[in-house]
Design goal:
61 residues, two-stranded antiparallel sheet, 1 helix, 2 strands, 20% helix, elongated
């Protein structure tokens, strides 16, 4: 939800009118290296992060 809240705030400010955003919260699935994380159901603050991708105008992904 943090990534979505950041995207909503950026859109509200209106500075990036022609930019699409994709908000992801993948800290529990992916490690910072990009590889899949092992299953760990306990809280791990080192794996808390968010990812926001900015998609330039004219691009679809």
């Amino acid at each position: 939800m943090r990534a979505l809240a950041v995207v909503q705030e950026l859109q509200r400010q209106g500075e990036f009118k022609n930019v699409q955003f994709r908000a992801y919260s993948g800290a529990q699935l992916y490690l910072p290296s990009g590889s899949f994380a092992s299953v760990n159901r306990s809280q791990d603050d080192t794996r808390r992060r968010m990812e926001i991708r900015f998609i330039p105008p004219g691009r679809s992904n």
